[in-house]
Amino acid sequence: MPAKGKHRRPKSQRFTRSIAIAGTGGAALALPFMGATGAHAATPQSVSEKAVQSLPFSQKSAEKTAAKKDAAKTSTVRVYSVRAGDYLSKIADEQNVSGGWKKLYADNRSAIGDDPSLIHPGLKLSIGKKARTSTTKTESSASSSSKAKKTEKAESKSSSKSTAATQSSATTSSSGYTLPVTGATIGTGYRVAGSMWSSGYHTGVDFVVPTGTSLKAVAAGTVVSAGWGGAYGNQVVIKLNDGYYAQYAHLSQLSVSAGQTVTEGQQIGLSGATGNVTGPHLHFEIRTTPDYGSDVDPVAYLRSKGVAVG
What we know:
Blueprint: H1 2-74, E1 78-81, H2 88-94, H3 100-107, H4 109-112, E2 124-127, H5 139-168, E3 185-186, E4 205-208, E5 214-216, E6 221-228, E7 234-240, E8 245-251, E9 253-254, E10 261-262, E11 267-270, E12 282-287, E13 295-296, H6 298-304
Antiparallel strand pairs: 1-2, 3-4, 4-12, 5-11, 6-7, 6-10, 7-8, 8-12, 9-11, 12-13
Helix pairs in contact: 2-3
């Protein structure tokens, strides 16, 4: 019995150790299995986290793109330097100003002043100064715009009728010539000597008229220049159909543009006092070329065409 008991105890101890070893081995074998399971479980979690983290980045990227587009729309402001011969409607047309010369004038009124026709070479104008408003319009604003257009058309028709009436009442001759301004007296005559003129004499005649008086084409022809003329202020030069050139200076407003054809008696602008003057009047010349220094006696020229000059 004792011998058998001694024999069994070692076996029991080996069995116990075997179980412990088996348990240890089982634990050892379980570790990589659990590790693998944990690794597989971590993968979807990691992907989810990456998806969540990438969402704000996408939103920020979209916002940056939208901001760049908005900046491109609002960063189109340009500076234009006025050149000789320029006037607002011409600049607005050449620079594709939305809203025309009125928009250009409104954006630069502080630089131009109260008279939109008084611009001069070297003046800096902002093109596209103000941001565009939303294209979405309410019904009321659309209605207002429609009414404004109708009013503008009505005013245009009224102006056309007034111009036609003025032209029909102009003093004309059978040869198709008329006075550059109606009912005016001559102030300074042609070839009057004086140090105030660079040529030493007066190269035209001055018709004494208040600012805003309608000025007319003395005959049919083509406008070769309309804009700022230095000492002449705002001026218009027309090549008449007989080959001579008529010049109108110191205008307060221009009604024609270069390249435009005009008829006898058509309004080409309004008188004023722009440039080097001591008061409002029309300086009128007849030239053999469009340039200064080619003047001829304008009174004699008009009389030769059958126009009575007071």
